[in-house]
Amino acid sequence: MLWLLLAALDAAELGEGSTDLTGPMTPSAQVVTLTNLDDPVRVDDVEVRGRRGAARLAPETELNGAEIDALGAYDIGEVLDRIGETLGVGDEPMVIINGKRVANSSVFSGFPPDALVRAEVLPPEAGGLYGGKPGQRVVNLVLQRRFSSHDARMIGSRPTQGGTSSLSADLRRSAIAGDKTHQSGVRVSRDSPLRADERERGHENEGPGAGAITLRPRSDAVSANVNLTHSLGQWAGVFSLSGQARESRPVSRLGANIVEGRRQYENLGVSAGLSGTALGWSVQGNMNGQASRSRDEGFADIRNENQSLGFNGTAGRTLMEWPSGAVVANLGGNFLGTRSVLDRNQARTTTTFHTGEVRGSLSVPLSKAGEEQGKWSGLGDVLATLGGSVRQSSAGGGDEVNAAFAWTPNKGVRLNGVWSASSDSVPDLQRFEPVYFDTPMVVFDFRTGEAVEIAPIRGGNPDLRPPHTESLSLTASIGPFSRWSLAGNLGYLRTESTDGIGALPDLTEDVEAAFPDRFQRDATGRLISIDFRPMNLGSTQTEGLTSSLNFNLPRPAGVAANEATVVRVALNYNLRLGSTLSLASGLPELDRLKGDGGGVSRQDARAMLDARRGRWGVNASARWEEGYRTRRFSGQDGSGDLITAPYTAVDLKLSFQMTSTSVRAANADEEGGARRRSAGLQLSLEVSNLFDARPEARLGDGAPAPGYGRDWQDPIGRSVRLSLQRRF
Predict the structure, then answer these.
(1) pTM (two decimals)
(2) What stretches of 553-615 adopt beta strand conformation (E)?
(3) Which of 12, 236, 412, 494 is paired with 46 by a 20 to 30 Å CA distance?
(4) Over 70: is that where the pLDDT of 17 sits?
């Protein structure tokens, strides 16, 4: 059926595109405006050539085609994930396409990486210019003018210790022709169960039926999607349709009983949007609908159905041109209405709720750098952004004010600051999500000094109160410098919150005394279940430093970018200066760095390598976390404390292209150069947790900690994954 769908899409083949997906952005002061960013223009006998897909700001970091391929990603979504890991752009960067915001950028995440000409990480101040939150990072993806591919992939993975395995298969069709694109795909997967008797877990495997308990449940899933974009006169339209279904069969201990559960989930989503220009404003709007249903049997008899309809829109324009640059205003808003029907033990409850937000920001350039004899002069570039938002939901209202300051005193040196204060409303999902028993987990019970397997309770909490948060971040960045493209940054972040919404901290006796109703014990005192639903914490304060260093192997002179050996290295280091917590109003403040209220690691680090030479590719990462103490009783170290050992894990991926046939780009002068993928088979071998590291811990008196044997906290360990990918 998928190939019939793909054939139908090809029948309506994307013809010659008259324009790109997005038009040129409003230029800053002292920049020549080009009506077509691909064509040269002569001004006073000087030929000026624009760059297709250029953003408002020059990128802080840019990846060309070869560097994108070196990331070893299957699709653009994985490219963004890897960029987030190596370049520190955060969990939710704003994604723009060809230099401009679009109604729904997620429709491009399923395209192959070689559909990209380049990927640009813009400076932190770009978030305010493009209508995001001040300080939010922006990634500009520049697509090929023309592109077409059929791809298939099969993946098999299994722990070296055996016991469980995973199989999956993907089919994908992708095409770009100017401003017209389509992408469709289907994926199926199956994970076999990992049973308790396949691992050494001591007395937890004893008793009738205990060996059948699943440490990882059997699960099956299937998903499909279709994404289309098309020009509609001076506007660009986007349409997306997706669906998924999954089922899992966990077997767990619930009290003295062994219970087999069955969980099913189906979801269908559709969205449509438009982007263009109206009355001088760059406008984007997208409407989306979701319908889902879930069934939970065994642990509890729960059925839930949800329908939602939402809209989000943004608009931005240049208000005026100052000698220092353009004053830019951005407006935005969204609305979501949801209806939920819950059947629990033959009792039906119907709930409707809504959320809405209106936001705005103004970016003002305070200074523009001059240039004398090739050197910057004056104060440099200075940009200030002020913003705010108002939110309303079924749980109440909220608001936020924020400000950002960006100063570039010299080329390659950037200083940024972001401050925000918010009184937020509670997300409806955190209030109304159905309560359910999740996959069993092993925890250390400080009261008894034993490791026990419990059935965690998840879902929503209708009693949540609105949180109040204030945060400040300061960042200094330098680079890139030299042929090595050396770049680095140092950041400071401080966050304070009252009634912050979070999960239950580590299970110390102080935590159980503060929230006794969240711990369930049987008649013998054995811990059998813990309520992990979201909760309000009295107050929290975190403070820390972040740092990163990135560099590339220099490209030899005279060698094209897509023909050189690519080696990119990223190093990240984080240091927590403080982390305090008050569980509830009136309770003392707990210092988590000392181990009170659940310990946290003071420092962690990560190193990543992405390399490619010819048909070979290598991707590797190593992460390290310092050990820490969790005190049984706050304020003092004791023999019953849990001391977690430092942890290091290494992942390695090797890939090989079976043929060297090169497929050229449609345009000889395309920025991406020669196409990077052949029609042959690509083989990838990936080893997660290469040295089979497992979490380890001891008690304060030096004795081994229960629940931290080889197969307790991580029963999977080292895993090998083989991937076969082919383009047709």
Answers:
(1) 0.84
(2) 566-582, 590-591, 603-613
(3) 412
(4) no
